[in-house]
Amino acid sequence: MTALFFRDLKLSIRAGGGALIGVLFFLTVVAVIPFGVGPDLNLLSRIGPAIVWIGALLAALLGLDRLFQAERDDGSLDLMLMQETPLVLTVLVKCSAHWTATSLPLVIASPFLGLFMNMDEVAIGATMLTLLAGSPAITFIGAVGAAVAVALPRGGLLVSILVLPLTIPVLIFGVSATYAAVEDPAPFLPSFLILIALTMFFAVIGPAAAALALRNTSD
């Protein structure tokens, strides 16, 4: 499993630019917002956490279609299905490697983009913390879409269409927890705990559903 993790980590970084492409897309999405809403710094600081979260969500969707594509292309997907190691565990390790290579750089880059959106220190810290807690759920949800679309030509768009509606609860509670940390009357902990619960829920459901989809695809 350790060898599989580092193998997938290298593949995720090399394929299509990996983390660099995701961070550049993240930067592009956030950077165009001030041109659309104008130079109102107060407005930018108010909508900053939501914009950073939306940018991170869209950037995290970029490489999901490649999660199982390499194994499908070289035939090692059949070996994964026949090996003694449970397929669910294999999918979990692959999701962990994909999150480390693609989503973790987005979390690290979020404070710099928060400064770009005129966010204060509390909002930047809360955004980074909620992204760290919620972004794994996006990867686990995306694994299901990637498994469903792995046998389809040009399945990348289909993965985004399948995954995006399912990630809405993660986005809602991530942004809610961030705003709760900034606005004193709103409690931060309930929304943040729900966000963690969503990640734990999809950490169990996502790999199991992806493994089932991969087996059905091979049949």
Account of the protein in words:
Helices cover 83% and strands 0% of the residues. The chain has 219 residues and is mostly helical. It is elongated, with a radius of gyration of 18 Å. The model has no long low-confidence stretch (mean pLDDT 83).
- Give the radius of gyration: 18 Å
Helix content: over 70%
Secondary-structure element string: HHHHHHHHHH
Shape: elongated
Ends apart, CA distance between termini: 25 Å
- What structural class do the secondary elements suggest? mainly alpha
Number of strands: 0
Nearest-integer average pLDDT: 83
Give the strand content. Answer: under 5%
Strand count, sense and barrel status of the largest sheet are: none
How many helices in DSSP terms?
10
Residue ranges: pLDDT <50 for 5 or more in a row?
none
Describe the secondary structure blueprint for this structure:
Layout (H helix, E strand, L loop, with lengths): L1 H13 L4 H19 L3 H20 L8 H6 L1 H7 L4 H30 L4 H29 L6 H11 L1 H15 L5 H31 L1
Helix pairs in contact: 1-6, 2-3, 2-6, 3-6, 3-7, 3-9, 6-7, 6-10, 7-8, 7-9, 7-10, 9-10
In a nutshell, what does this entry contain?
By secondary structure, the protein is mostly helical. Helix content is 83%, strand content 0%.
